[in-house]
Amino acid sequence: MRRILLGALGALVTGLVDPAVAEPAPTAVPQADRPALPESVPAPAALDSQGLRAGPVAAVRTLQLLQDRVASGSVAAHEGQPRLIARINADLLAAAPEVWADGHHVRAAIVFSLSGGGPAILRRLTALDGLGEREATLARGALAFIEGRDADANRLLRDFDTAGLPPTLAGAVGLAQASLIVTENPVRAIALLDRVRLLLPGTLSEEGALRREVFALGQIGDLHRFEALAIQYLRRFPHSVYAGNFRQRLAYQLTQFDVGRDEARFGALNRIVNELAAGSRRDLYLLIARTAIQEGKTASARLAADKALALCGPESPEAAQGRLYRAAAEIVDLATFEPGLRTLQALDRSKLPARDIPLLKTALATAEEIGRGLVGTRVGPVADTAPSRQAQAAADSTDGAARLIPKAQATIDQIDLLLQKATP
Length: 424
Known about the structure:
This protein is mostly helical and about 425 residues long.
């Protein structure tokens, strides 16, 4: 019976974006929450004028300074990045052939391409004669990586020794190497990402390496180091333009650890979330609760929803969300089915965000089907009774479960159809 109920619950949010595999647009951080940048860091326009006329090395340093501002939370720097990249790309493509006789400029061009600059300059470089052997291998490997030719990129970059390379190039190559192997060899990817963090502290490269390493640790199930590095990320890069994406993926990964399973796991969750301000803690608990429903982790959903509700005003929209997520988890447990259903029926839809209306509708539809399957079944803990009454109750429960199977499947089909219409 419980397996059927959990299957129905999992369908409640089927079709919504999975934060583990989809990375939405960077989330802006409120201006008031961003730290002031040091006066020594010039504005993007000034960086542009200072760097581009001095050759590839200076131009790429310009881009890196701008990208480090992104890690500090500058939305303006993030929005200005494509324009600067386009300008640098045009200048590199227009550079005279003798410029590339200098290995420093070649290495800078490789860093540029791996930092979002694209493949055009690498195509030009790989067609030239006279590149050093290491630079030629890196250029070909980086080009294959950018173009998605993973087999070629693996052959050229996987075992490339970055010792002796400038830190910026070693960091860019290390990020690419880790990306190529993280699925099949996450332990080695973690070691590569560790090195990037040590090479380039305080940069966007460190931010990206730390963000990726947290989820590689989740992949291997290392909750202790996962907790330590998640806390480190939230302390070091709380205002990064990518921090919102990080929190969404963090919520997904925490549900994979099934943090509601025992006190130690839930304690790790609380220590991570406590790094945030109260409003952000509330929002992350809500996100974890919703994600836990999607993953069928009902204990995690209830505990996270309770934590969120403790941080909400009683009549706030966030409280309505918390009650929805908790009730959606309650309806799959016989002991809490009835209070969960009452909560769902009493929710004020006007206080819910638009994305949660389909969840409420399908939770109610699922609860109705479950209720029909429970006709003749005692809800809640069964008191001590005569053996014959216990046997009859068990038989009724089995019959109810059998009747529920086709109804639950029909409900899931209806849910899928509803969510296809509700999700762009």
